[in-house]
Automatic annotation (TrEMBL):
Ranges annotated as biased composition (Basic and acidic residues): 1161-1181
Protein name: Neural cell adhesion molecule L1
Membrane-topology descriptor: Single-pass type I membrane protein
Biased composition (Polar residues): 1248-1265
Residues covered by region (Disordered): 680-700, 1161-1265
Compartmental location: Cell membrane; Cell projection, Growth cone
Taxonomic source organism: Denticeps clupeoides (denticle herring)
Gene this protein is translated from: nrcama
Record's keyword terms, sorted: Cell adhesion, Cell membrane, Cell projection, Disulfide bond, Glycoprotein, Immunoglobulin domain, Membrane, Repeat, Signal, Transmembrane, Transmembrane helix
């Protein structure tokens, strides 16, 4: 809807419809105080309107101004504006007070009094100005006093060259133009203090004669507290008019120069309207109001004291409008009021005129001070009333007409006008009207009869109907009716309420690098009945006409972005009713421009200051500057980084080296990257000088027994400091009274001294020198000439075995003279034979002991072994001759676990065990210990049985076992030192119906080790091992279904040793078991089919780990499934019945045969070879324990039954063959001793092919199987 300024109806305004009568109204006039330029024609404006158009006349100085009598004065057509041609005339002749009058048949309007004055710029009067002579420190005022001009001139002080004289807190110009010195100084002496006055209308400048000031110091003024030079005294008064600018000034003398400050007593300085000028000496307050009156205090303060001056400000006011009288349009017999509401100080006097004539008493009008009351007006009483308000500071004059008319209503708004608004916005339906008397306005919607004058409708006085927040339901046809007593008039308009246009997704802030792509998205929703127009602006202007800018339906894409594309991009969606817009900023970043204007300042012998101007940052702040240099003397075109400078600094102090031709350049770095290098600076050459430093890394060593090589790190070009760089190499034998020997060399980093004694200490120094002198005193370094092989071996070498794995060696050290070099230690090559009789020793291992040792431990030895060793000293050159060979034996130790262990040949009541001796017997085996126990279906263990076996046995059949039962077996070997680790295995007897299931592994049990033990003991330089465990400590394991035996080597004392384990890949904590005092541990409760990580850890008393072996991964075999119970299966029952019937038939046949007394081959065999088991055994037969002939299937305690179940008297365990000391003992393929048991078994097996046992159910079952 079209916006309107709501006010009275049209009838009360000055904008009447065309052709309606109207009294005159002044529309343009010249200012009251009109200063003219005497060089131009005088133009006095006076324009007015009215119906009919008014005529104009003028008065001058209160009298009628007859234009016809002065040909120089003309009036513009249809206007009251005067044009006075002053060519050939003086403008002064037309100075005066002018007033314009505009009249028509309905009234007369008058203008303000216009005072015409000519501008003036008089010359300065000639005067002789005597020089001003003052003493140092006194105050001084140089007066300007320009001639009075119209308007007043602008004052300033300059020298003859039109350069402003310097002003400061001590010297400043006052508001009146005078130049004030709070105290004069010697620099104030000059002869060209000139005051200039510029007259603005004529643009002329007048100058005063120069003033000479001479300052003497023969009687200078002392320091003093401030006193005011202007205004004088402690109080003054200032008057200012309302609305003008207040300027208060305080200038004080004093030494030192006082500081000025201002405050308002009983209040604050007016916020936002005050300011300080002239070095705090002037307080300026703009747009003064009555509230600004009061006391203002200025304070002058220096080190000697302070002074105050209070200026009382009084605010006066020329007349000003509070409410000017307004034009009236009245119908006949109506009443009205004209009000002339003005303010001022002092209160203005108000006078009224009508048509330019003082008002007279009339029954139809009454004057009451600032009000004229009109009543019962008549046709033809139209007039123009003048209100004049004046006081001593000025006046106001206003014209207001009263137009008496009788007119029927008119609706000025076009009919059937369509209004379209956006929902939730105000809708303003116009009903512009005119009529006299004022018509009454009513509104209707659609076919309703009710008047719309309640929420949400608001009817304004000008006839406009407003809907505060229009909604779609407000759409429709509206009717406006204007009525007065003369007639009524109606008008129809339509309202449509549309959905608003909204940007759903606004473009976002974009930071892109130059030459990349920027995309702004702008998604919009709008009313479907409106046609949208999408447009984009850049910085509120149209986009550049460039193909890089691509506008799509909902986006703007800018390709190959440049710096010129930076700015604010605005997406605008326009419809005919509304628009929505959103903006986003595009910032283009790139690497900075290179710095410029490199300048070298503060140039010194060893330093220079480099300054530069940063280049454009390209919207990415510079983080730092990189300063590089080029040395064109030593390495041309090679730029070297010298220093970095923070991005906020543009200067750096550079330390320089002598004898360098420097050029500098600077690079800038921001988030995008480094700029290109700046142009190089001017070359800066430093003078040569003697070296500041000597070569570094000086050392002396020999490469032959009779030489000394002196080496150093050469100085580079920057370090040389000058031409002719050489090195003075000096040496002498240490602790020998001799002079330094010196040689000078160049372009090398070493010098060889020949014919030196072997491995002698030398004092060495290397000093740099060039053509300008030598470097500082060099540091003396001690070096040694070359070494030779030692010439002697250690004496008195003795070896003693401390236990089965540890021995100690002692020796006498070699004299240092025989070492012939730097003693590095002693080497002990050591070889092992498994037994004394072995002819092929193992590969030698070497132990190393420190140079200060005279004894040492030999750890990691094998028990029951023969070792031989010698000892030799070594230095940097190599080893000396060996000592005499020494041999020693280690005592027996505990054996290792059996190398293999398996269960074979299961039967109803027996299991056969087969094993091999330990790989590490560590002595003479004395026996094997076998223990076994049943395991029930819940893995619970039964009672333990134990059998002691001879050391040469490797096979054993355990009888009298329970059928279909799992048994767990434990086997260990022993020497005289004790029992070794145990190996375990499990087996299952078969069911008595003839089927069996083996449980566990029937393969050879396996052992694993983290590391394969080395055949050589580790090398130690000390006498004791460095930790609880030897390097590469083997951790061994033997694994069964639910347990693992862990063994290790351990030497430590007073330490806590733990076996730690957890499931592989588990994140749970390690399970710890304390195992102090042992070197084996059985881990129980392991889950079958699971892999575990195991390690052995030693900890101190604070529970801190001091050593840990590597982790060993062991896998527990999966538990075989329990034997299926087939006793209830049909086919099994049938089979058992058939077998039982067959056995019964066999028994009957045997019974018949026996009764007949016949013989059969089995019986004959039994007669020829009677079973020894039924023979009584004697204690001297060499057997173990007693024999039991009971048939209750109990274990044979203490028995050693061969696999065929027979024992012969010749098979004595005391045979020397068992110990390898005689007889025809046999060895199997792997060299292990078998003895007579194995031979007997093979023999019996061969014989058994021809034999037969007595029939029995068990034998029959075995035969069947």
């Amino acid at each position: 809807a079209d916006g309107k300024c709501f006010g009275p109806p049209v009838r009360a305004s000055s904008d009447l419809p065309a052709l309606m009568p109207q009294p005159p109204t002044i529309t343009l006039q010249s200012p009251k105080d009109y200063i003219i330029d005497p060089r131009e024609n005088i133009v006095i404006n006076c324009e007015a309107k009215g119906k009919p158009h008014p005529s104009f006349s003028w008065t001058r100085n209160g009298s009628h101004f007859d234009l016809d009598k002065d040909p120089k004065v003309t009036m513009k057509p249809s206007s009251g504006t005067l044009v006075i041609d002053i060519s050939g005339e003086k403008a002064e002749a037309y100075e005066g007070v002018y007033q314009c009058t505009a009249r028509n048949e309905h009234g007369t309007a008058v203008s303000n009094d216009i005072v015409i004055r000519q501008s003036r710029s008089p010359l300065w009067s000639k005067e002789r100005i005597e020089p001003v002579v003052v003493q140092l420190g006194v105050s001084l005022i140089l007066q300007c006093r320009p001639p009075a001009g119209l308007p007043p001139p602008i004052i300033f002080w300059m020298d003859p060259f039109f350069q402003r004289l310097p002003q400061n807190a001590r010297v400043s110009q006052a508001l009146n133009g005078d130049l004030y010195f709070s105290n004069v100084q010697m620099e104030d002496t000059r002869s060209d203090y000139i005051c200039y006055a510029r007259f603005p209308h004529t643009q002329t400048i007048q100058q005063k004669q120069p003033i000479t000031v001479k300052v003497l110091d023969n009687s200078p003024a002392g320091q003093r507290r401030p006193s005011f030079m202007t205004p004088k005294g402690t109080n003054s008064v200032a008057t200012v008019l309302r609305g003008e600018t207040l300027e208060l000034e305080c200038i004080a003398d004093g030494l030192p120069t006082p500081d000025m400050s201002w405050n308002k007593e009983k209040g604050d300085l007016p916020s936002g309207r005050f300011s300080f000028h002239n070095f705090q000496k002037t307080l300026r307050v703009t747009e003064v109001t009555e509230a600004d009156s009061g006391d203002y205090r200025c304070t002058a303060k220096n080190s000697q004291g302070l002074a105050h001056h209070v200026i009382t400000v009084m605010v006066k006011a020329a007349p000003y409008w509070v409410g000017a009288p307004r034009n009236l349009i009245l119908a006949p017999r109506e009443s009205g009021i004209l009000t002339c509401h003005v303010g001022g100080n002092p209160k203005p006097t108000i006078t009224w005129s009508v048509n330019g004539v003082p008002i007279e008493s009339d029954p139809s009008r009454k004057v009451e001070d600032d009000t004229v009351i009109l009543s019962d007006v008549q046709t033809g009483s139209s007039a123009v009333y003048q209100c004049n308000a004046s006081n001593e500071f000025g006046y106001l004059l206003a014209n207001a007409f009263v137009n008496v008319l009788a007119e029927p209503p008119r609706v000025l708004t076009p009919p059937n006008k369509l209004y379209q608004v956006i929902a939730n916005n105000p809708a303003l339906l116009d009903c512009a009207f005119f009529g006299s008397p004022i018509p009454k306005i009513t509104w209707y919607k659609d076919q309703q009869t009710s008047i719309l004058n309640s929420d949400p409708y608001v009817l304004h006085i000008n006839g406009t109907l407003e809907i505060h927040a229009a909604q779609p339901l407000h759409s429709g046809k509206y009717t406006c009716v204007a009525t007065n007593y003369l007639a009524s008039k109606e008008n129809h308009v339509r309202l449509e309420v549309k959905e608003p246009t909204r940007i759903l997704k606004q473009p976002e802030y974009n930071v892109v690098q130059r030459n990349s792509k920027a995309v702004f998205e702008c998604k919009v929703k709008h009313d479907p009945t409106l046609t949208p127009i999408m447009s984009w602006l850049k910085d509120n202007e149209e986009l550049p006409d460039n193909e890089r800018f691509v506008i799509e339906s909902e986006s703007l894409t800018i390709s190959h972005v440049t710096e010129a594309d930076e700015g604010t991009y605005t997406c605008i969606m326009n419809t005919t009713l509304d628009q929505d817009s959103a903006s986003a900023v595009l910032t283009v970043v790139e690497q900075p421009d290179p710095p410029t204007d490199l300048e070298l300042t503060d140039q010194r012998e060893r330093s220079v200051q480099l300054t530069w101007t940063p280049g454009d940052e390209h919207n990415s702040p510079i983080q730092k500057f990189l300063v590089q240099y080029e040395d064109s003397l030593h390495q041309e075109e090679a730029w070297v980084n010298m220093t970095e400078v923070p991005g906020t600094k543009t200067t750096v102090h550079l330390d320089l080296s002598p004898y360098v031709y420097y050029s500098f350049r600077v690079l800038a770095l921001n988030d995008v990257g480094f700029s290109d290098p700046s142009l190089p600076s001017k070359q800066y050459r430093t003078n040569p000088a003697k070296p500041d430093e000597n070569p570094s890394e000086v050392e002396g060593f020999g490469i032959k027994p009779n030489n000394l090589v002196i080496s150093w790190k050469e100085l580079n070009g920057l370090q040389s400091n000058g031409p002719g760089l050489q090195y003075k190499v000096s040496w002498k034998q240490k602790d020998v009274d001799q002079e330094w020997i010196t040689e000078t060399v160049a372009n090398t980093s070493q010098f060889v001294v020949s014919d030196t004694p072997t491995f002698s200490a030398y004092e060495i120094k290397v000093q740099a020198e060039n053509d300008y002198g030598t470097g500082p005193t060099p540091e003396v370094v001690v070096g040694y000439s070359g070494e030779d092989l030692p010439s002697a071996a250690p004496d008195s070498v003795q070896v003693e075995a401390l236990n089965d794995t540890l021995a100690e060696v002692r020796w006498e050290p070699v004299h240092l003279s025989a070492v012939r070099g730097r003693l590095q230690g002693y080497k002990v090559p050591m070889e092992r034979s498994l037994h004394k009789e072995d002819s092929q020793p193992e590969e030698a291992q070497v132990l190393v002991f420190g140079e200060n040792k005279t004894d040492g431990r030999l750890p990691g030895l094998h028990p029951y072994s023969l070792y031989s060793l010698d000892m030799r000293v070594f230095n940097g050159k190599g080893e000396g001759p060996p000592s005499a060979r020494q041999q020693f034996e280690t005592p027996e130790g505990v054996p290792g676990q059996p190398a293999s262990f398996r269960v074979t040949e299961p039967s109803l009541d027996s299991l056969t065990l087969v094993w091999t001796p330990p790989e590490e017997e560590n002595g003479r085996l004395t026996l094997y210990t076998l223990r076994y126990q049943p395991v029930n279906t819940t893995s619970e263990l039964g009672p333990m049985e134990e059998i002691i076996l001879s050391p040469n046995e490797t096979v054993l059949t355990v009888s009298n076992l329970k059928y279909s039962t799992r048994y767990k077996f434990y086997l260990s070997a022993s020497t005289v030192k004790g029992s070794g680790p145990t190996v375990t295995e499990e087996g299952v007897t078969i069911m008595d119906e003839g089927e069996f299931v083996l449980a566990g592994h029937t393969e050879t049990p396996y052992t694993t080790s983290l590391l394969t033990p080395s055949p050589h003991p580790p090398l130690y330089k000390g006498t004791t091992p460095p930790s609880l465990f030897p390097p590469r400590t083997p951790v061994n394991s033997s694994v069964g279904e639910n347990g693992a035996v862990i063994s290790w080597e351990y030497w430590g004392v007073n330490k806590n040793v733990y076996v730690e384990y957890n499931a592989e890949n588990s994140k749970e904590a390690w399970i710890k078991k304390l195992v102090n005092g042992t070197q084996t541990y059985l881990i129980k409760g392991l889950k079958p089919g699971t892999s575990y990580r195991v390690r052995v850890v030693a900890k101190d008393h604070l529970d801190q780990t001091i050593h840990s072996t590597d982790e060993l991964v062991i896998t527990v075999p999966a538990m075989p499934s329990r034997q299926l119970d087939i006793a209830t299966q049909g086919w099994f029952i049938g089979l058992m019945c058939a077998i039982a019937l067959l056995i019964l038939v066999l028994l009957i046949v045997c019974f018949i045969k026996r009764n007949k007394g016949g013989k059969y081959p089995v019986k004959e065999k039994e007669d020829a070879h009677q079973d020894p088991e039924i023979q009584p055994m004697k204690e001297d037969d060499g057997t173990f324990g007693e024999y039991s002939d009971t048939e209750d299937h109990k274990p044979l305690k203490g028995s050693r039954t061969p696999s065929n179940g027979t024992v012969k008297k010749d098979d004595s365990d005391d045979s020397l063959v068992d110990y390898g000391e005689g007889g025809d003992g046999q060895f199997n393929e792997d060299g292990s001793f078998i003895g007579q048991y194995s031979g007997k078994k093979e023999k019996d097996t061969a014989e058994g092919n021809e034999s037969s046992e007595a029939p029995s159910p068990v034998n029959a079952m075995n035969s069947f199987v």
